[in-house]
Design brief:
alpha+beta, Elongation Factor Tu (Ef-tu), domain 3, 7-stranded antiparallel beta sheet
């Protein structure tokens, strides 16, 4: 999809949260979020939004992560299209790669 050579790669495993009919998202591990915020906070736009490229399984897409003060970490939404392609279900761990 894109040349990731100029980007910084972060990997983590998370369990999608949400409800059957609504948004699904993953919470980034807090230690990783702290590292990202320390190094990339200058890239945040409104509401703590930061553009990213994500990959789960074989599917890669452009997205954003949002810093959520309630959870003290970044949230990353997982579109229905991605969930369908990768057969992602709630409460099932997924391996995530993001590039910033």
């Amino acid at each position: 999809m894109m040349d990731q050579a100029q980007k910084i790669t972060y990997q983590f495993t998370a369990t999608p949260l949400g409800d059957v009919s609504g948004w699904h998202f993953v919470l980034m591990p807090k230690d990783l979020a702290k590292e990202i915020r320390g190094n990339h906070k200058w890239q945040e736009e409104g509401w703590g939004r930061m553009k990213a490229t994500a990959k789960i399984g074989k599917t890669e897409w452009k997205t954003s992560i949002w810093f959520d003060t309630k959870h003290d970490t970044y949230l990353m939404p997982i579109k229905a299209e991605i969930r369908k392609k990768e057969k992602i279900k709630l409460n099932q761990s997924v391996d995530v790669i993001i590039w910033l």
